[in-house]
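FAQ

Q: What does a record look like?
A: Structure on top, sequence underneath. For example:
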């Protein structure tokens, strides 16, 4: 396959780029992402292009980096006009070397028309991530989604008809549900299964399935605190999660991360960077970057993380923080944590750094040894926060002694 910018030099380090587009048609009731109910403003995209050009001086053309993933997230990036999106894409293409890039855009079904889909294709997006959340109108209404289940079905077919061959569908389980039937105020297992059955029949290349988080400050949180809404019990929630994993696997998907599954070869290359500590630059409001710093022996010595970290100014992250990030992200992968990668990055043995915590977690049945290192068990997947807490406490304890 022909790569973009084939005539440029051959840099060796892969880099991801994330662009945050913080505009939405209407705020969903559970949402705590940085997004605003307003039309996308040209000035925001002009600023994105400026920042991308500045970052290009350090990591773009003529440096050791090339871009292999580009991800437009939000908010609702598909709300932006073709001209606004093009402005940002042009800035990336002009300032960075792109090599066989995965170029993703998040879309809301309500924004997908044949014309919009054709524009996105024309602009060079080759992966679309659509926030469907549910194919049950009662669940969509309770979540405050702006689209209906039919609109989501239609949008998927429009994307397919336009020629998109790499589509992710985002789903949520464990939700409340608006219903005329007062005995059905929550998403029951069978409602969740119907959505999943239908989505699996649509055969998207990638499926993300998240348990609803009721975040403080959201309208859903206020209603929940005031006991105006209900959600399924913890047991029901876990049954939804584990039955989804079984169902997804039966249909040939690779469950590769706690909440993500893909047909073989369609794992999200961009998100894998977050989970394997690869460098990425984030642009726009609330976007984060991570730029690792390696010593002469090839070991990780520090890392810049945070907003505008592409400027690599300020205090870099310490080695201890980087180790914490490593376990936090690697344990989310179903293949688990890679101990030799840990050794390669930090020059130390994972088992020596976390021995006591590992023994404790194994005794509780939360983790299990693998050929590569350790991974979470089914019980561990249900208790991911206490697992992380135990590991981080050992890290903290070692740091203080
Ligand atoms: S579409 Fe996404 S980003 Fe926008 S309000 Fe809803 S959940 Fe939040």
């Amino acid at each position: 396959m022909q790569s973009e910018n084939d005539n440029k030099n051959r840099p060796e380090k892969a880099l991801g780029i994330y662009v945050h587009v913080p505009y939405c048609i209407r705020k969903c009731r559970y949402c705590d992402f940085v997004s605003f109910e307003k039309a996308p403003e040209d000035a925001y995209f002009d600023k994105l292009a400026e920042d991308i050009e500045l970052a290009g001086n350090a990591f773009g053309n003529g440096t050791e980096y090339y871009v292999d993933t580009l991800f437009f997230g939000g908010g609702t990036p598909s709300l932006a006009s073709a001209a606004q999106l093009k402005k940002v894409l042009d800035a990336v293409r002009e300032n960075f070397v792109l090599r066989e890039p995965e170029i993703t855009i998040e879309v809301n079904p309500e924004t997908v028309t044949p014309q919009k889909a054709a524009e996105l294709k024309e602009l060079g997006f080759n992966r679309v991530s659509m926030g469907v959340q549910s194919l049950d109108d009662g669940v969509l209404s309770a979540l405050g989604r702006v689209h209906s289940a039919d609109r989501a079905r239609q949008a998927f077919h429009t994307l397919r008809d336009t020629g998109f061959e790499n589509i992710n569908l985002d789903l949520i389980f464990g939700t409340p549900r608006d219903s005329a039937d007062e005995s059905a105020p929550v998403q029951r297992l069978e409602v969740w299964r119907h959505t999943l059955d239908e989505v699996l029949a649509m055969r998207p290349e990638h499926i993300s399935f998240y348990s609803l988080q009721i975040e403080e400050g959201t309208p859903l949180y206020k209603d929940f605190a005031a006991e105006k809404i209900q959600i399924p019990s913890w047991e029901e929630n876990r049954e939804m999660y584990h039955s989804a994993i079984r169902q997804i696997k039966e249909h040939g998907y690779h469950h590769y991360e706690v909440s993500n599954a893909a047909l073989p070869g369609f794992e999200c290359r961009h998100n894998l960077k977050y989970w394997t500590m690869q460098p990425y630059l984030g642009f726009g409001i609330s976007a984060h970057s991570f730029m690792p710093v390696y010593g002469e022996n090839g070991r990780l010595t520090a890392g810049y993380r945070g907003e505008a970290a592409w400027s690599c100014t300020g205090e870099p992250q310490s080695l201890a923080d980087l180790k914490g990030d490593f376990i936090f992200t690697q344990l989310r992968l179903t293949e688990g944590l890679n101990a030799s990668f840990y050794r390669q990055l930090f020059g130390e043995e994972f088992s020596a750094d976390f021995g006591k915590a590992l023994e404790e977690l194994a005794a509780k049945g939360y983790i299990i040894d693998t050929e590569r290192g350790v991974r979470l068990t089914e019980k561990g997947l249900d208790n991911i926060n206490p697992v992380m807490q135990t590991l981080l406490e050992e890290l903290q304890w070692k740091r203080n002694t």
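Q: Is there anything notable about this one?
A: The first strand starts at residue 13 and ends at 21.
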